[in-house]
Amino acid sequence: MSSFQTFHHPPSTPSSSAMPALSSASALHSLLDSVPLKPMFQRLPGLWILLLIPFAIFGPIYTPVLFSLYYLSLHLIFLANNIRSAYAVYIAYHSSILYSTTNWIEKYRADVPNAGYGDADYHDMPYGSVEHVVIIPNYKETWDTLCETLDILASHGRALTQYRVCLAMEQGEQGSEDKARSLMDKYQNNFLQITFTMHPLGQPGEIRGKSSNVAWAARQMSTSLANESTNKIITVMDADTAFAEDYFASITYHYCVAPASDRKIMMFAPATVFDRNSNDVPVFVRVTDMFWSVGVISNLYPSSSVKIPCSAYSVSMDLAINVRFWDAGPEAIGEDMHMYLKCFFATDGKVIVKSIFSPASQCNIEGEGTGWNGYVSNLSARYTQGKRHLWGSLDTGYVLRRTLLRMIAPGYEPTVDTTGTSFPESGFKPSVLAFLFHRMFESHILMGHMFILMFFTSIFLPVNQSSFYYWFSVAIFSRLTSNPVHAWVAFAVGISFWVRIAILVPNVVMITYYEHYQRWVGRTRWELLAQQEECKRLERMNDPSQAYVEEEDVSLKNHREFMEQLNRPSLGSDMSIFKVTSSAELTPVVQPLGIRASLASYRDFPSHLFDWAYIPFAGFAFGVLPLIHAQLSHLFTEHLDYKVAAKPVLHRPQHEPISVEPPAYSSVVDSADVVSIVVKSAAAQIPVSRFDRKDFIDESCSSPCPSVSTDSNRDEGFFDEDDSASISFPSGSNSGLATSHASSSSLRLQLSH
């Protein structure tokens, strides 16, 4: 059990001197229970919009100073946002290269005292002891989509010893249990555990959607693991999200090296990238999602005190338990931001969020049909998704309510004891709370208010004589007042115009580095890894005594041609991470990534740069309009009819063997546990963890086969054709859920020549 305790009310047996305070607190709590704070605060953004319209029309006349300050402030905040975004994308690009080229277990051994080459027997959190509880909420997802996501996870070197996969199914989907059981049967030998939960219909206070499904699954997994949470991290990911292996490797590292007390208040927020089907959707949808990724990245730079995750993220199980898991009500429809905010207030702003620059690869939403109808359907689907995303502006009211309650009634909401952490002081830091308010303003207020003020200013204020409707503005303004435009208003409007022009500068920087970032994470790192593997394969196939001496040797020739390609200027600076240590030796630095998703959309330079020209139109259609739509709707309801976004459909035979890009460099095998070992042959290398069916093994073998035992201390992760390996799959107790563990018996592989 966690050493942290949650509490709601004061101790049940107070001293006599504390009785008046207890009575006062109880009375205040009772009063707060009777006040409808939640519906009051959720309506504030919508009311603000309604009040902003008359302010935009009459403010320049009757409150010119206030109008000018607010108008100019919005533009300056927007400029600061763009500068920060440019900086954050620059950091994300360089950090993504660093993440892809870092051997995280070696870094762990280097950074942890007494770790040595083993798995840190003297450290309180050995690298191999961390378990990842991967929750995949899904509803009416196709078999192929789920298989591909599981294939990708199963290709990771430590999936067999550290991944507990939970398929979070919905009872409302017909046949969901049969689908889950079939997937369990297929992947039972690929993970430490694979199980599923069935979220029941009609739970009191819940809404349909991701938040309620994740909340149910996380509770069930915690219960099934007997609340043994000290070494477990919950990862929430969509059914079509693809994580590379270095995502889990890096969060394992960050979790292990953190002080034990800090692990209990940790979250992990990855960057995002839409690199799967982006070339198959309208440019308006594509550029909207690219800008959405920029928005996520903009708050992940390392020194940021507020880092809000998006869509896919990880939470220490200790923290999830102590904040009582995910909320499942209407205001939690944006479950990613809402869970962060819940943890933020439960820890008095001390929640530790690590930025992870191995991004979550995601699909763009797609419509139905083809041709013009399909195009319009896609735009409509993206608007619906945008409204659902911005329905999360309910969280602005949530922040205001939690702040008020924390000020007037400490202890009214559950909190987490942070004693012993790196932040032992009690209460919020004002600067951190101010940063949170600023981020919420940027997310849910800024663009809507800027649009409204700019729209009405352009129509009613006669300040731009070059405008073709200047005469109309003069006529309208003269009917409202006989006075000229106030000097402050004219100054604010004029300066704001030049601020908008100045925003182009950080935008150019941001676009440049975002293109580099997407090229690296979506293409270059995968191609480099594949080329590394091919070079190593060619080297192993040749006689070591001849391969590096014979000038005309095919392997050497191919290797040198490859090196020439790496140094071509057209490939850009991404290739500089390779270091040549001799005329025929390539030092590989791109670490194992697992297999990549079957869909991939590459961005071509410079043609795709024109996409960014559509930002003003896409931002208005899929940002400003759904934001205003959602917030005005909140005046009447907090409930949204949740619709699952349509994504690309994969087509492959249901029983097709899992396709794996053969990794030449496996994760390092620890003496304390067994991970997937790569079988080396002249033709290919196949991770042992991929042999999920006996018929697949039989097809790969012939008889007789050599059978020579190998030493478990070999950390290279390979064994020769004249060797075989006994690989023990860890067993686990039945959790009480529908579950399947890797077989506890040893599996002896026989290899054919």
Short descriptors:
three-stranded mixed sheet; 753 residues; 23 helices; alpha/beta; globular; 17 strands; disordered C terminus
Please describe the topology of this protein:
Elements (H helix, E strand, L loop, with lengths): L5 E2 L11 H16 L2 H6 L1 H19 L1 H37 L3 H8 L19 E7 L5 H12 L4 H4 E8 L5 H12 L5 E7 L10 H15 L7 E5 L8 H13 L8 E9 L8 H15 L15 E4 H6 L12 H12 L5 E11 L8 H20 L3 H15 L6 E2 L13 H31 L9 H11 L6 H16 L1 H38 L2 H4 L6 H13 L12 E4 L2 E3 L27 H19 L44 E3 L4 E3 L6 H7 L17 E2 L6 E3 L9 E4 L4 E3 L5
Parallel strand pairs: 2-3, 2-5, 3-4, 6-8, 12-14
Antiparallel strand pairs: 1-9, 4-16, 5-7, 6-7, 10-11, 12-13, 15-17
Assign an overall shape: globular
- Percent of residues in beta strands: 5-15%
Give the overall average pLDDT: 79
Query: Structural class, from secondary structure content?
Result: alpha/beta
Question: What's the main sheet like?
Answer: 8 strands, mixed
- Unreliable runs: 1-14, 116-121, 545-560, 562-588, 653-736, 743-753
Strand order of the largest sheet: 8-6-7-5-2-3-4-16
User: What is the distance, rounded to the nearest whole angstrom, between the alpha carbons of the first and last residues?
Assistant: 51 Å
Strand count: 17
Helix content: 40-55%
Supply the number of helical segments: 23
Instruction: Give the radius of gyration.
Output: 28 Å
Descriptive overview:
This protein is α/β, with parallel strands linked by helices and 753 residues long. The protein has a domain of 71 residues. It is built from 23 helices and 17 strands. Helix 3 packs across helix 16. It is globular and about 85 Å long. The N terminus and C terminus are likely disordered.
